[in-house]
Structures are given as C-alpha cells and as structure tokens.
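Submission sheet (multi-component)
Chains listed below:
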Amino acid sequence: MNSQVDVERAQDLERRLCAYEELERRAHWPGALTAADVVALALLVLVMIAGAYYLGGHP
Amino acid sequence: MSASREQEFRLGAERGDTPLLPSERVWGFWGFAYANSALAVATWVFLIGGATALFVGPLQGIAAIIIGNTIGVVLAASSTCLPCGKYGVEQFTFLRSMFGLNGSRLVYFLSVVVLTMGWLAVLGLMCGRALDNLQTLVHQAQPSGDGWLVTGGALLAIVLAALVAMRGPDMIRRLSAVIAPSLILIMLALMYFISRRYSLDQLLAMPPLQPPFENPHVNFMVAVEINIAAGFSWWPYIGNLSRLCSNQRTAFWPNLVGIFGAASLGESVSLFAATTLGSSDPTAWMRLAGGMGFGIIALSFLALANLTGMVNILYTAVIGLRQLAGERLRSMGWGVLITLFCIIPVVIVVLLPGIYDGFFIFLVWTSALNSALAGIGIADYFFLRKQRLNLRQLYAEPSVSPLRYCKGFNPIALVALVAGFAIYVVVFNPQTLAHTDFFTFATASLPSCLLAGLVHYGLTRLLAARLGWGGYPKRNERNIEAVGLRVQD
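Outcome: structure written.
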C-alpha cells in the first residue's frame, strides 16, 4: 500500500463502498425486488409447474 | 485522480476487482434478456434436449423441460443474481461472505474449473462427432462412433479453442456474435424438416428412445432432474452477468426470458429432433434431417458453434482462476495457463470418450453440487444476513475481517455443502440412476438445496456468533446496525 496507484485504488474502492452505504441508509433501495415481485414469482412458478405437470407430466 | 486512472479503475470494477456502481452498469431488461438468450442458445441445448428424449416422449419431455428449468433457473438466479445485482459485486467475491476467502476459491475450483474441464471435453467430442458425420455424409458411409476421426477432431477443437482464447476477448466477441442467430436458423430448419414428415399429434405421441425403467413416472422424474440440472448449471455464471444490470429487478426477471425461455424452446426442438430421428446425438440429426446440403452446412456450423462455446468458457474460467489464485498463478504466462488448463480435457477425450454419450450423467453430477450451493446462498443471504451485505468486510484484509473464518474457510458452509451433496447421491445416484422412492415425488436437487440451506442456517445460528465468524446480525439486531453503518455516522 505504498505506491501512488495503490493509494488511488484504495480511494476508488472507498468511494464505491460509500456509495453503497449511502444507498443502504435510504428507506427504499432503487430497483429492489418488491413484495409484489415475490408474489408474482411464486404464482408464476406454481402455474408453470402445476400446468406443465397437468398437461403432460403424468403418463 | 487522472482520467486515465479513473478509466483503469472502472475497467477493474467491470472485471470484478471492486463493486460496480449502479451508474456504471450497462444492461437494462432487454439487454440482459438478449445476452442471456444468446448464452442459452448454444450447442448444449441440443445435448440436453437429446438426453431428455432418452427417458420420455415429447409431451412428457416438454413438461419435464418446463418444470426442471423453472425450478433450476429460479433457485440459481435467486441465490446469485439478487445479491450480485443489488451490490454489483463479483459472484465469487460475494461468496466470501458465506465460504470465506479460501472457501470461495475452493467453490470456484469445484464449480467452475471442474465443470469447464468437463464441458471442454464434451463440446470437443461433439466437434469430433460433427467432423465424423460430415465425412461420412460426403462419402456416404456409416459414422464410426468413437473412432480416430472423433478423437482427433476433439483434440483439434481443444487446441484451436486454446489458441483462440490466447488471442483474447476481441476475437471471442466477433465469433460469438454470429453463433446464436446461426443456431436459431438451424433449429428452425430442423423444425421445418420434422413438421414436413409428422403432424403435431404424431409428434406428441412418439415414444422415448431408451427409457431405463419400466415405470414411466420414474423416467419422467429422471427427465425432470436432468432439466433441473440444466437450470442449475448456470449457477457459476449468472451472478457475474447480473452485476452488469442496472438494478436488482433487471438482474432477476430477464433470466426467465433468456435462460429459461430460450433454452426451453431450444431443448424442445432438440427433443422433437431426437425422438423423430431416433438418436440423442445432435450430430446424427444434422446428417439425417434434411439431406446432404443441409447436413454439410448444419454440421459445419455445429462444429464452429462448439468451438466458440469452448473458447468462451475456457477464457472465462481462466480469467476467474487468475483473479482468485495467488501471485504464483498470476505471474504465469497467459498462454502457459491456458495450455495447462487444457491438459485434463485432453486426457478425458482420450481416456473417457463415453462422457459424450453419457453426457447427462456429467450434467446431473454438477447439479449435486450446484443445488447445495444455491441452498446455502439462499439461507445465508436471505435468512441470515436479511439481504444486507457488509461490503467493507468483503473487501477488507483477511486478517481483520470476520470473513476470515477458520484459515479462510467457513467450516459450517463446507459441512452444509457436503450434507447437500451427500443427500443428493443418497436420493438419486447420477452414475447408476439408482434412486429412493422419495426421489419419485421430490426430485434430488430440491432435498439437496433444502438440506444444505437448513444445515448452514442451523449451524450458523448455533456456532457462528460464539466463534466470532461471519459478522452475522444477531436475531434481534436491526439490519442497519448489523452491517456496521451506524458506527461511522
């Protein structure tokens, strides 16, 4: 951690970590998966699996 | 800081050295969906569709493809894309939070290096088979199976893939750009030739090629397991793609369009081709489907597509290996590293050419590992860390980070990994297809994923806080405190 480039690299990492810590402090993380996404995903998975099994899964 | 230095650090972030900021990410929903689809529509979809046809006919096969890929892709994406898409961290850097620094290296070796070596051998042999079929098509003779031309072609493909990978990413990008559209054209042509001979009802009523069990439900469940394995096989790769997406939702949903949708379509076409042409070997379909003209073009493209796939996975695996390995590997020449990496695939091609025809066995073995890894990832990120990572711990010097665990390994996660792997093999042995009754309704991947997650969760709750491992939040601790942010306020 002596050369100028190492110092600058550490500063760059610090800047990135601070940016995410700033996001973490907010009440809402932009673009995060919401409860609606989770419900939609659960329904989609259920429909796909049950539907596929019903239409072709049983011999 | 100079502009050139900033550019250098940004490039470093793209390659995984540091977290990518949301403003630096390049893919929106459709961008990621396209990249995903291009990756999914490769020659492996032919192999997976062909393997499914061994066990079930087209109607059951399509159901198995949909069920298996849904389960595999959703679990693999949940455990990798959601954390990596949120924080922009490289996937194996993220894995330090649950496996430790050296543990994540071990996981990289098991899930990427071993997998890539196996795939290099399989795709190389497919190249060899394509050349063999091409030669027999031109000379109107019978293909030789695993004759000298297949072995020679496979070895040549590995050497060519190594030479192209040594040239770097530009050549790879140029080759990759033409392959996915060409393969889609081949699939459309295959469907055209098949639909000229058979009606949809006839197609759906076709029998499986070589069902190993008398009970059709067991054959169906094996087909589902193969397709779960296909979905899970993206686990080592999709985290690093998703970190290039603009946000967490964009990092997740396109997987259902690309990896699930495109791969399922490709596998379904392959399933039809395999059942109507009577072989699970894609190189045989190209020879039999549409006469000499189509055969020569399709087999040539197939060989080229395999080569491109091989170069892609070889390049990616060696780049990752250099990132994770110590100074000794990093100081080694790029060409030397690639050559050394190709030795084991060459040995597999020469000594175990049967890996190509028993391809699904290799694929299902990888699922025994990937399903357990997904279970541990879900338990750790969602239930133990409550979707909050302390990035400072991930990038801190190992000696001062709680992620140092025990000499860089988290024994708890490793025990969970072994438990998940073991239950998989007990429930369903990929080598012999021996299975318990439990497998016929629960699959093997789901119990493996669940058990690995439960063991990781239970042992972490029981031991990690006492041992000071992992920096996990306590049960009642507020998340914002747990990640250490208040300390700096």
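Remark: Residues 482-489 of chain B have pLDDT under 50 and may be disordered.
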